[in-house]
Fold this protein.
Amino acid sequence: MKYIFLSFFLILDLFSSTLHFSISSSPSRLNPLLATDSASSEVADWIFNGLVSYDRDGKVICRLAKSYHFKDSKTLIFRLKQNIKWSDGKEFSGDDVLFTYNLITSPKIYTPYKDTFRYVSSVKKLDKFTIEVKYKKPYYKALHTWMSAIIPKHMFEGKDDIMTNSFNQKPVGTGPYTIDGFAISKDIKLYANKNYFLQRVNIDQITYHFIPDPATSFLMLKTKKLDLGSLTPLQLTRQIDDDFKNHYKIYEQPSNSYTYLGFNLKDKKFQNPKVREAINIAINKQELVDILFFGHGQVCNGPFMPKSFAYNKDIEFPKQDIKRAIKLLKEAGYDKKTPLSFTITTNSNNPTRVYATQILQHQLSRVNIKVTIRAMEWQAFLNTVVLPKKFEAVVLGWGLSLMPDPYSIWHSDGIKKGGFNFVSYKNNKVDSLIESSQESIDQEVLEKQFQEIFSLIVKDNPYIFLYIPNSITAVSKNIKNVSPSIIGITHNVIDWIKP
């Protein structure tokens, strides 16, 4: 009899598999309403769903919703899929959608995702599986609003303190994977959700190996201990061999992200526009790209991505001009005897940002600006420097969605606690354009408004936009059904097969 059981377990092992990824920082909270750092968001994305999502081509499709239609220009009706269960076996219904909306818009939590729902007038449950959403006015992202993750009502009943709820560490979702919890600076394990409503995933487990050191992560990739990993341009061009290329397939495409030097505009030295302009034209951005990326990237010129409808190609972007930079600094009261000095803080687990900051330090020294560099662990950087706005300047980055929304980053309302306007940027014209663009359901009108927003922000220099890296990903050739798209390599992991 014991041989029968042994054979049974051997068969189970043959049909079980694990995807091995790496992660360089620990999540803070896996509640998607509170997950504002990249590590938390990446892990939470496996666990939760919205009512709608993007398909591989960037088109909106139903997810938890069965269908949707606009009753009029300000009323959106969702019919929800039935027989969906949360990972703990409880039934999903319209009560969860209503609860999520009421929670995210309540004063109980501080989250920048409140802004996503700012034009929603009301959310009403018409019946158990039908939701009516009314907007204050026509809104260009009315449907995209509901890509936000839905969380389960039953997990919060009788619990008042949302910010410290155990759900934040051990969530229950409707996504393809679930989690038993996580510990700081430890590996994270996700398990196939047996109640997932689309299909049973082929790969039973995802393990994120906690590797804060990028060199160690690359070593694990080279020794074939990871199934997927990012490559830097240096690694791609000089540090991989034929054996690596035989084992991994390499995918490269422009990323929907940029890196910037951001100023604390509440600091008097950065309130002078001449100072910000001088810093901008003292920097050779192409040199940054050449040194950091070996041609696998491009200069960033503004807040929206090139080739997007929001990008303003008619702007003449300034080149490096050392003489004019020195002149502007002198007009602002700075010279060799009284140099402008400030500290740039960035996160130490991103070596490219650290190297970029070192290059900026060197370039700015040519116009007599003295830069001090401070590199910090990500969570400490986020929680003690960025969020409380205790910095002079930071090197950070943003990832952008297919339909950009400048409100949370560029509208002055984002200066508030929990907002994404870390640099405290305020321009009344930009605010007005952002507000009016929210009602634009005419694509041509929206395009003109976004391009003007782009132009004004570039002129003001609240950020110095630096570079757009290419996304370079190595995926094991052992994995079947990998299909890269504009929404990422892992968009169809539920179809992946790992023998």
Observations:
- The chain has three domains: 15-26+164-253+472-495, 38-155, 257-470.
- The first strand starts at residue 18 and ends at 23.
- The chain is about 30% helix and 20% strand.
- Residues 220 and 253 are 23 Å apart (CA to CA).
